Amino acid sequence: MAQEDKFGIGVVGAGMAAKPHALALQALSDRIAVRGVWRRDAVALKAFCAEYGFPAAESFEAMLADPAIRAILILTPPNAREPLVAAAAAAGKHVLMEKPVERTTQAAERIVEICETAGVTLGIIFQHRFRAASKALEEKVRSCELGRLFAAHLVVPWWRPQEGYYNKPGRGTFAQDGGGVLITQAIHTLDLMLSLTGLVKAVTALAATTGFHSMETEDFVAGGLEFANGAVGALMATTANFPGGAETLTLNFEKASATLAGGNLDLRWFDGRHEQVGEASNSGGGADPMAFPFDWHMAQIADFVDALETGRQPVSTGRSALAVHRLIDALIASSREGERISL
């Protein structure tokens, strides 16, 4: 495909979270053209572009003025997103953005409304939905062959060291991140859970900061869940579980129990059948938060482009992401107020 016929995209932000996106965009170069990357740090921008073979943009405004750029991929910390999204939407550019949508649900709602009012598509990166195992379970849930959901059990037993992670400026603060383990790490598995279970109607939770970390926000959350469909559940999420392990989501259905552990699905039917899907892979649960493959990002970016080219909504939208933001708010509120919180 000629360069001018490819889907043009611009990238804003080239920090730690950019690596899997860059590798994914390289792998998709037969159909997607990265027409510019912009970051305030000129030295870091030059190094990033040299490493991945992408052109540096003169400015964010220059990318917005490029008619060949149809979408902007925003990879900045959440505290820098709203003005970028507003400018991109005003320029008629679609937006694909790293999770979370913003630090607070109120700000996230504003971003969603900005894009909807401008008539541009907003996609949110939740790459765990695009694992082969996750997609296989989603297909079985949608077909109703598993029967009714009765219970769910979610565990995110991750580890992040104080030195080298939380000691970096802004990490674990409300001003930059908006929260701790829920909105920064467990949000991926929480979003995946909601995509398979449906909405939560009430929670009872405990959130705390363990002695492992000196930080403003929580590094441990445990809670009970009541789903709108009548199922019940429990969760535990932490970055204080050394050396860190794969997140696990177990769903107990009427006819089978399904466990997603990292990138693997283990499906055990009550009639004796046993199915497995996926392969062993790291998930970023240990000290290196980027220790995972880029295939899932590649699949999500491809889905976003497919959606725009066919006129459908992408799998993960800004509107759908608000559900996980509201769940996180409820969990934190329950711990703070010491009572059951209805969503």
Describe the structure.
This protein is of the alpha/beta class and 343 residues long. It contains ten helices and 14 strands. A hairpin with a 2-residue loop joins strand 11 and strand 12. The longest helix is centred in the last third of the chain and has 20 residues.
Strand order in the sheet with the most strands: 13-12-11-10-6-9-8-7-14
- Kindly report the CATH topology of the largest domain: Dihydrodipicolinate Reductase, domain 2
Instruction: Give the helices and strands as they follow along the chain.
Output: EHEHHEHEHEHEHHEEEEEEEHHE
Largest sheet: 9 strands, mixed
What is the tally of helical segments? 10
CATH architectural grouping of the largest domain: 2-Layer Sandwich
* Domain unit count: 2
- For the termini, the CA-CA separation is 48 Å
Number of strands: 14
Query: Radius of gyration, Cα only, in angstroms?
Result: 20 Å
Mean pLDDT: 94
Which percent range fits the helix content? 25-40%
In percent terms, what proportion of residues is strand?
Answer: 25-35%
What's the CATH C level of the largest domain? Alpha Beta
Low-confidence stretches: none
Classified in CATH, the superfamily of the largest domain is Dihydrodipicolinate Reductase, domain 2
* Coarse morphology: globular
Domain Gfo/Idh/MocA-like oxidoreductase N-terminal: 7-124
GO molecular function, one term: nucleotide binding
Protein name: Oxidoreductase
Pfam families: GFO_IDH_MocA (PF01408), GFO_IDH_MocA_C3 (PF22725)
